[in-house]
Specification:
- α2 packs across α7 (about 120-135) and α12 packs antiparallel against α13.
- The chain has helices at about 1-15, 20-55, 65, 70-75, 75-95, 100-115, 120-135, 145-175, 180-185, 185-190, 210-230, 230-250, 255-265.
- The chain is built from 13 helices and no strands.
- It has about 270 residues and is mainly α.
Length: about 270
């Protein structure tokens, strides 16, 4: 009972402290905006083909309003992408606020629905953090009497982002742990030799035991991340390990967007 009360007091103190590091919030939110901006640029040539050959189907429902940006994209793709670029540039220039953060999430979510045939895990992670970052506002449209509540909302959102990143690793590690192909190393071999994602510049020829060791290193890293990241003495080593892990994903699997968004999420645990 005493330990539970102590944890409750600690949680309340965290939520009532001065807003989650202003510098960290600013860097985290705007790094997501930059990532979205670059993603749009690289997707620009592909989007035209997707709209042409795999058009998004609309139905008569409330979802029509949610999917309104997609309708605009189908009417004029270039205007849609230019509009997103302008809004992202404005968001990078002004302080983080509810309006621009919510608007960017809406547009990013629409782009993900539009590009669903070529989407990967980076889209889900990006949209998850963009949604939570709405509540990390530096300049909220709230009266002074509600500042205390805003402080708790901001701190709760920052803590929720951290917990989400920990859960991503925990669930991914658990799924690999219960997978026979991962425990045997066959999954690593298949991934590295998969033509769809393999990088032709990196050809790896190893024996089975090495693939097994690599697979278990991945499993142990993903399971240990949420356990060790909370301790200051382990934080830097685990973040460095994660950085190298995702750099490997970028180059070996040719998945730069997923590797980059996961590295950017480490801003949540950087000291400020």
């Amino acid at each position: 009972m005493i330990s539970i009360k102590s944890y409750q007091k600690k949680l309340i103190s965290v939520l009532q402290r001065e807003n989650s590091p202003a510098l960290g919030r600013n860097i985290f939110c705007k790094s997501l905006y930059v990532f979205l901006f670059l993603k749009i640029i690289f997707l620009w040539p592909v989007l035209n083909d997707i709209i042409t050959y795999l058009p998004f189907e609309f139905t008569l429902s409330l979802r029509n309003f949610i999917d309104a940006p997609i309708k605009l994209a189908q009417l004029d793709l270039h205007l849609f992408l230019i509009l997103i670029g302008i809004i992202v540039l404005i968001a990078l220039w002004v302080k983080v606020n509810y309006f621009t953060a919510a608007l960017i999430f809406w547009l990013s979510f629409s782009v993900s629905r539009l590009t669903q045939p070529v989407a990967n895990g980076s889209d889900q992670v990006l949209n998850l953090f963009l949604f939570i970052s709405i509540f990390l506002s530096e300049r909220p449209f709230l009266p002074a009497t509600l500042k205390e509540g805003q402080k708790m909302i901001s701190n709760s959102a920052w803590l929720l982002c951290q917990l989400q990143l920990m859960l991503i690793y925990l669930l991914s590690g658990y799924d690999k742990l219960i997978s026979k192909s991962w425990r045997s190393g066959e999954a690593i071999y298949s991934i590295i030799n998969l033509e769809t994602y393999s990088n032709p510049w990196f050809v790896i020829t190893l024996n089975k035991s090495i693939f097994t060791v690599m697979a278990w290193c991945v499993i142990l890293f993903e399971l240990s991340f949420p356990l060790l990241i909370g301790f200051k003495r382990f934080r830097v080593p685990i973040l460095i390990s994660g950085f190298l892990f995702h750099v490997g994903i970028i180059f070996l699997l040719n998945l730069p967007d997923f590797g980059i968004i996961m590295i950017l999420s480490y801003i949540l645990f950087m000291p400020y």
